[in-house]
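note to self — DONT lose this again. spent like an hour looking for the file last time. sequence + predicted structure for the chain T wanted, 253 res
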Amino acid sequence: MKMTDETLEFLTRLKDKVKLVLQRHKEQVTDFVDPYLKRVAEEYLKNQVGINYASFGGVERAERQRILICPEYLHPSVELAGISIIRLIGNLNYVSVSHRDYLGALLGQGIKREKVGDIYPVSDGCVVILSRELADFLMVNPLKVKGVTLKATELQVGEWTPEKPEGKVVAVTLSSLRLDTVVAHGFGLSRTKVVGYIKGGKVKVNWQIIEDLDYKCAENDVISFRGKGRILISEICGETKKGRIKVNLVRYK
């Protein structure tokens, strides 16, 4: 599949980092990347001589991670990856706050998206993973979400473990595994409506933008729809007597 300009630019920056590691014998680290760009990077890095590399997201099962590249005689470690884990808490009893609200507040502080890893909403605030150089900034520039000031505390790696996200299992029968069909059923929209969204680049399969309506989805694919959440094709269960495909989807907010 053809790479986007964004992916090609990322690869160029990655190659520059590998050159710096080989020339200066010092580790280099990328910004936070999604699982798709992580796969792209690993496909390139596995063929490079003279380096070691590993990915770190600060917590177990982190989605967004930084890729650490170092000389082959060094062992990659989370300490070298430049990651901080910040807990932000406040009196949120009277407001409803979502992942999007926390991210919007961080970006509103002038923090770039690529410097932020995963964000985990908790009962009294959130836990955010971000580049280490931004930890002090959050300590002295309190984050405000919907008018509520959040107090920042830095956590040590391994001190906090996120809960596994819960989703709603939905059993559907589909005429095909085409992307437009799966998206329509997964998000409760008409196929006519989802066509524009897919062609407009608002749908990703396994964190890669897919604009092809005919794209064939598969078991374990993660399909995200900007502004509407994501679904997982958890199981393809065979066909009905009428030839429709039985599928179990897990729907996440």
